[in-house]
Each structure stands twice: as structure tokens, then as C-alpha cells.
Amino acid sequence: MALTFLPIPTGTARALRDGPDAYGLPPERIGASDGIATPCRHCLAQVPEGQPYLIAAHRPFCGLNPYTETGPIFLCAAECVPGGPGFPTRMLTAPSYIVRGYTADERILYGTGSVVATSDIPARCEALFQDDRIAFIHIRSASNNCFQCRVERA
């Protein structure tokens, strides 16, 4: 099965750079990345070391319901080229991530969420997509639950 790994849309990245974020606040500008992992949700790569980046509240859903989580994301402060559609190896550098399936009405499909070794993410996504109720998948931080990217059937 072919998978597509999707960054946040370019329009969303531009809007977040200009502010406000999902909470109505301007994004926090950090002077430079200094060796800490700062995965940009638009280019699906680590913010280049020494470059400024933003932290903004983001809600990666279209509608509102009890499952539409909002949380912090990192974003290159400067314009960057959107990542995808392949597996984002330059961004997903932790040993594991949460992989969780959602229905078309943006609700978690219970029983789909699990912590998965990074190298096993594509296989886990393929297995989840065998269930026709799953419309999309989120990859999230295993330690902080932050949204990383969205996965869809290609």
C-alpha cells in the first residue's frame, strides 16, 4: 500500500508565521536551534542548526469535537519547502512515536493508538489502513504527544 506523509499546508505555515496561532497568540520566536530536536511540521525536517524557529499552538483538524487536540509545534522561522510525500526520515529522529488512526469525522478510532518504533511506522500505518473506518493517521511524539505529521492512503 502506498502512503503519503503530509506536512501542515503551506498556507497554514504562513499564517502561523504571521500569527496568531490556534490560541490567538503570536508564535514564540526562538533565536536559534542549538542541537535540540526541532522538527519543522512544514518541511518535515529538523530546523537547521543555528537557524531561528517558531513555537506555535496548532490544531491539525478542520472541525471541532472532543478529539481535536491542540498543541505546540515547531516551524522554521523562514519560508521552507513543504515536505512529503515520502517517509520523513529527516524529521522523525526519536526512537519511537505514537501512531493513531482517525475516522472521517476526525474522531480517534479506539484501539488504533500505540507507541511504535520509528522504523516500523510505515508497516503500522499500512496495517491500520486495512480498516476502512480509518480516514487518516497522525504521527505524534511518544514523549509529549505533539503532532508530527498526517498520513493518508496515496
Can you tell me about this structure?
This is DUF1203 domain-containing protein. It comes from Paracoccus albicereus. The radius of gyration is 15 Å and the shape is globular. The mean pLDDT is 96. The protein is built from 2 helices and 8 strands; from the N terminus they run βαβββββαββ. It is mainly beta. It folds into 2 domains: 74 residues, no CATH class; 58 residues, no CATH class. It is 11% helix and 28% strand.
Spell the H/E element sequence. EHEEEEEHEE
- Taking pLDDT < 50 over at least 5 consecutive residues as the criterion, the unreliable ranges are none
Number of beta-strand segments? 8
Question: What structural class is derived from the secondary structure elements?
Answer: mainly beta
Specify the biggest β-sheet.
Answer: 5 strands, antiparallel
DSSP strand (E) fraction?
Answer: 25-35%
- How many distinct folded domains? 2
- As a whole number of angstroms, the C-alpha radius of gyration is 15 Å
Termini distance? 8 Å
Pfam families: DUF1203
InterPro entries: DUF1203
Protein name: DUF1203 domain-containing protein
Concise structural overview:
The protein is mainly beta and 154 residues long.
